[in-house]
Each structure stands twice: as structure tokens, then as C-alpha cells.
Write a structure and sequence with these properties.
The protein has helices at 30-40, 94-104, 122-125, 196-204, 212-226, 247-256, 274-280, 309-327; strands at residues 4-8, 20-27, 46-49, 55-56, 61-69, 74-79, 83-89, 128-129, 132-133, 138-145, 151-155, 176-186, 234-238, 244-246, 263-264, 269-271, 287-288, 291-293, 300-303, 336-337. The chain is α+β, with helices and mostly antiparallel strands and 338 residues long. The strands form 6 sheets. The protein has a 5-stranded antiparallel beta sheet, with no helix packed on it. The chain has a 4-stranded mixed beta sheet with strand order 1-2-5-3, with helices on one face. A 4-stranded antiparallel beta sheet has the order 13-19-18-17, covered by helices on one side. Helix 4 (196-204) crosses helix 5 (212-226). The chain is globular and about 60 Å long.
């Protein structure tokens, strides 16, 4: 385990931003992490890095000890005829874990195919897509407190999951490294194709009774058609959360914008796609300097090669201000800004 100084993070963040960590180490076990914590001895603030897919680095040099979560391992720890409980190391690649589940015939995460990042980061964000959220298959997790090195267990209620939110983005932000996540996955599949895009993709292939693999393949095809490959064009996927507004506010907007899109949340609120709002403000495909909104999906901000984190953040602020001015809706970042 090597402690590095002035270590480049360019290949470790999907925006491809050329930033450096003042201090850097990759840990591959809880023992490694405890050693790193002790060696640091509270000299430098700690920042946990997963797959680098949900962060925007706005500083040229991150003055922290950046600890990359490299804890691996996938294991079935409990099994019945109906379900299996799978324990997964926090450093495992999320999409590779999904593909592993599909190969094993374990359902519940197929709609979350091709989401970038690590398993350890997935509960922080309560990742979700196409009608499914992480909390739907979550059982518990183990996390290491960075101040003490102690391992704590968090059950579903402890995590306080919300829309792209959890206690790890709020009260416990930056205080833990998630070392292991436990999922309860089904052997009796409850296929969810309620989102029209999946149904349309399956219809193209004349699939009437889809398997979890067929759903996974459909989601992969949809995402690849809309989202740029970070290896080719730097991005962090969806930059903003879909805002939730009151039905009264939505009804007012519908008078002015008859084509506005919404998804019901409750009797009082609806969710409006941030991508639609941004596109209506004229940002889709628009480029400013080295950054811009992706031509196929306005919700995705991209780095055309030489952008800085500050440039991307400045663009994000302009976009949010234009949405507020046009629709009186506040959109907030889904990515973590450092």
C-alpha cells in the first residue's frame, strides 16, 4: 500500500479533470484503511473516492488525504428458494456487480445496469433508474468511521434514504467509508418495465416476456444511446436531480407550457425531468468554451477535453439560474462538488 503525494486524479474521475491529490492512497481492506487512518493521525482531512463518477473537482490540488476505496469481493451469504443475500465489497464496480447478478439469475438490480461508480458509493446516492432505487434491494451495510476506524452496521432505516439522498450525504457526510453492502435479491423475478423506454426497447426486439437479462440489455442500450462514454467524452452522467414541485405550481406552469412533463410522487407533489427543463432553456447541445450540455441529453454536462472543474461549475450555475428564471424551479446538483 503506497502513500503518494501530488497524485494525479485525471484517470480517477469521469469528467477527466486534471486535478491532483496532495496525498493519496488506495485501500484494499478494512485493515488497510485503519492503517491509513492511523498514519494520517488527523493531519489532513480525508476524502473518500470511489469510481470518481459522481464528483466535480473544482480545485487544481485537493488538499486532503484522498483514500480510494479498493475493497473487493462478491459473496452469497444467505440463500433460500426465493432469494439470495449477497455481500459486496465497496470497491467493486457497480455495473460489473449487476452483470454478475444477471448471470446468477438474481433479480432486482437489472434496471440499474450501466450506472457508473462503485458499490460503496451506491447507498450514498441511493442510485436509481427506470423505476428502481437501490433502497428497493438494500438490506444493510458495513461502514468504517474515519475518525476511529471502528466498523458500524447500518440497516435500511438507519440510512434515511431519499431521492438521490441518504444520511451519508447529510449528517454523516464525509465521516465513513462504506466497506461492504448487503443486497437481498430475488430468484422469483418481479420484472419492472413500467418506464416506457424499456417497453419500447423490448418491443423493438419482439420480446413479450422479458428475462432479467433482456431488461438489463434494454437498459444498457437505452443508456448508451443517450449518454456519452466517459472514456470518449468526460462527464458524470446526470448532473442535476429531477426537481419535485407542488401540483399547484405544476398546474400554473402547464397553462404557460402545455407540453411540460411530470411524474406523480404523491397527492401533493410531482417530479419534473430536469433534462426537459434545461432543454427548454436552450442549453441542449450548447457549448461554452471547453464545456457544454450534451447534444443528446441536456442533463449531462461534458468536458470537451480541456475544461476545468470551475468552468463546468460556472456552466452549471448558469443553467440553474436560467431554469429558475423561466420556470421558477430550483434544480440542484446530483453530483458532489469538491
Amino acid at each position: 500500500m503506497d502513500f503518494l503525494q501530488q497524485h494525479s486524479l485525471k484517470k480517477l474521475n469521469t469528467f477527466g479533470l486534471d486535478c491532483k491529490a496532495a496525498y493519496f492512497v488506495c485501500v484494499k481492506s478494512v485493515a488497510d484503511l485503519r492503517y491509513a487512518i492511523n498514519k494520517n493521525n488527523k493531519q489532513h482531512p480525508i476524502f473518500i473516492l470511489g469510481g470518481g463518477s459522481n464528483i466535480l473537482l473544482t480545485q487544481q490540488i485537493i488538499p486532503n488525504l484522498v483514500i480510494q476505496n479498493g475493497i473487493k469481493g462478491i459473496e452469497i451469504v444467505e440463500e433460500t428458494s426465493d432469494y439470495a443475500v449477497v455481500a459486496v465489497g465497496g470497491g467493486e464496480n457497480w455495473h460489473q456487480f449487476v452483470l454478475w447478478c444477471v448471470r446468477k439469475g438474481l433479480g432486482g438490480v437489472e434496471n440499474l445496469s450501466l450506472i457508473p461508480g462503485t458499490v460503496g458509493a451506491s447507498p450514498i446516492q441511493n442510485i436509481g433508474a427506470y423505476g428502481v432505487e437501490l433502497k428497493d434491494v438494500f438490506l444493510k451495510l458495513h461502514a468504517v468511521e474515519l475518525s476511529s476506524g471502528n466498523v458500524e452496521e447500518f440497516l435500511l432505516a438507519d440510512c434515511q434514504f431519499g431521492y438521490r439522498d441518504s444520511i451519508f450525504k447529510q449528517a454523516l457526510k464525509g465521516k465513513f467509508l462504506i466497506s461492504k453492502v448487503f443486497f437481498q435479491l430475488s430468484k422469483q423475478h418481479n420484472i419492472n418495465i413500467s418506464y416506457g423506454a424499456i417497453s419500447d426497447e423490448l418491443a423493438k426486439k419482439n420480446i413479450i416476456k422479458p428475462s432479467i437479462k433482456a431488461v438489463s440489455d434494454a437498459v444498457i442500450a437505452i443508456r448508451q444511446s443517450k449518454l456519452p462514454d466517459p472514456a470518449q467524452l468526460g462527464n458524470a452522467g446526470s448532473f442535476f436531480k429531477n426537481p419535485e414541485i407542488s401540483i399547484a405550481h405544476f398546474d400554473q406552469l402547464k397553462l404557460q407550457f402545455p407540453n411540460i412533463i411530470s411524474f406523480p410522487i404523491s397527492e401533493e407533489k410531482v417530479k419534473v425531468p430536469a433534462g426537459w427543463l434545461i432543454e427548454q432553456c436552450g442549453w441542449k447541445g450548447k457549448r461554452i468554451g471547453n464545456t457544454g450540455a450534451y447534444e443528446k441529453q441536456a442533463l449531462v454536462l461534458v468536458n470537451y477535453g480541456n475544461a476545468t472543474g470551475q468552468e463546468i461549475w460556472a456552466l452549471a450555475i448558469q443553467i440553474a439560474e436560467s431554469v429558475k428564471e423561466k420556470f421558477d424551479i430550483i434544480i440542484t446538483p446530483e453530483v458532489n462538488v469538491l
